[in-house]
Amino acid sequence: MPSRFLDPEQAKKHAEHRFDFGRKSLGGKVVLVPGGVGGLGAAITALLLQDGALPVVGYRSQRGRALAFQQKMQDLYGGPITLVEGDIQDPAVRERYLQAALDVKGDLYGLVALPGDPARVKADELDGAALAASFKANYEAPVLLARAAAGIMSQKATKGAIVLFSSMQGVHPFEGSLAYAGPKAALIQAGLILAKEYGGATDIRVNVVAPGATTAGMARASIDSGKYDAYVEHGVIPRFGKPEDVAKVVRLLLEPDGYLTGQVITVDGGLTLRRDRLP
Ligand SMILES: NC(=O)c1ccc[n+]([C@@H]2O[C@H](COP(=O)([O-])OP(=O)(O)OC[C@H]3O[C@@H](n4cnc5c(N)ncnc54)[C@H](OP(=O)(O)O)[C@@H]3O)[C@@H](O)[C@H]2O)c1
Predict the structure, then answer these.
(1) Alpha carbon nearest to ligand 1 atom 34, residue
(2) How far is the CA of 10 from the centre of ligand 1 (A)?
(3) What's the predicted TM-score (pTM) here?
(4) What is the pLDDT of residues 230-274, one digit of tens each?
(5) Residues 215, 242 contacting (CB under 8 angstroms)
């Protein structure tokens, strides 16, 4: 007696070894991308445009830079991009971001929450204020935005996808990263909780990406300073990460009708796995 949850058409196809691997299009789907002007965000926005999605890109305050970015991306990859301004640490701005996405066509399919702060604090200057500032930037703002987005998707019965951004420092203990890594590790736990709360029949997938040393964005300064050279020199990683490496994983996690949720994917070329190989 087959389960009543088994699709008979699909079961028949599979019995005949006829499988459907066709990637489902993001065409016409509204995806909110706060931080989409940044180093990793730009590659993600480009891939979304290539896929026909409708990205709503959030930037903090540099309007001129955002407008130039919008024009360049539309020239290179086709459009349109909607821009929304403001600091998502402000609850009113988070509402504005979500409203800007809903204004496109009354629905929100995806959220890719990129904003974060490297929280570079010297060891002897690390205090409660520094930790609290990092918590607000790297945990509070993205988590509350993600929860509000999940609430909207759930209310509209949209089987959407949410991607949060942690870091390799959030999955592996790196010396000197107390301020940055704590909230980034907590963000992973928040992602799992949201995945649990909005999973099942509601089917809103929530996953976390943890990039390694990538050549664009906030890690670029560290790469330029030579901080990560030893990892390549001693064969711990084959090369530095590229923004495209991260964008492709985000695309996978945004796949309509995807079957991945509550996962953290570390996109670091094996850096955390093989870090002990450094002499
Ligand atoms: N790049 C890497 O190798 C790497 C490695 C590990 C983890 N990550 C994580 O990946 C995410 C993206 O990093 P990225 O390298 O692309 O950084 P990025 O180049 O600095 O871009 C971050 C973007 O987010 C915006 N932003 C930051 N805080 C915001 C806020 N409170 N409200 C609105 N917008 C805000 C920034 O705007 P402004 O330019 O106006 O400040 C910027 O456009 C971050 O969460 C980061 O921790 C990156």
Answers:
(1) 60
(2) 42
(3) 0.97
(4) 999 999 999 999 999 999 999 999 999 999 999 999 999 999 999
(5) yes
